[in-house]
Amino acid sequence: MLVIWQSARVFAASDYEKIFRGGLRIDLSTLGYLFLPVLLLVCLTTLFSQQQRMRIPLKIYLISGSLLLLFFEGITPTFMLEYSLRPNLQLIDYLASPKEVFSVLMGSYWSAVTLTLMGLMIVGHGLGQVFQKIWYPVCTSFRWSQLFVQLMFLCILVLCARGTLAHKPVSPALVAFSSDHLLNDLSLNSAYAVGYAWGHLRNERGHADDNGGMAPDSVLRTMHHAKQRPGTSGPDPSL
User: Fold this and answer.
1) CB-CB neighbours of 212 under 10 Å
2) What is the pTM of this model?
């Protein structure tokens, strides 16, 4: 739908088909990460013959995860109108000030927020009904044959989550193809874009913590004593 909405910019690119190829890899990666915990839980409960106990946690996780994916897609058009990008690190920064975000949403985007929430409620109810119909508490096949099939699917999900057989897993950089950032973002889905930005932010903070908590004055004194020409003045503390 977003490709159709932005068709003027999409079809102006000569290699726009890369949006669909990259989008397929990113969507499979997202679904892989979503279903991997589910399948691991299924394997454990099958191993200990406790399948019935996972019904409620599995239902809550699958419906919540699906609604989260739909929520980020639901807010994407409004975010794109404002920034010409999918929700990303900017969205995470805004969540640090929830009162300001809430006032802006209710002031300028209350209709979009209302429609999104109503849609999520309807979809959530529908997913709950579907889960009730497809859930089979008793399986007649042998436990070890179930485990074998589950492990096969586990390997497939791991491959989908990585998105590639190369050393590095799939990322926005691997599916980027254009100097137009919006076209590159169309290859992603919004949940993946936000999750990737959040993981990148955590990694940056972790690297910052590795540097220690040395005070600025201590850094300046260390640099002054370690310089090659002790007779010269030290660095300007205002820099």
Assistant:
1) 8
2) 0.77
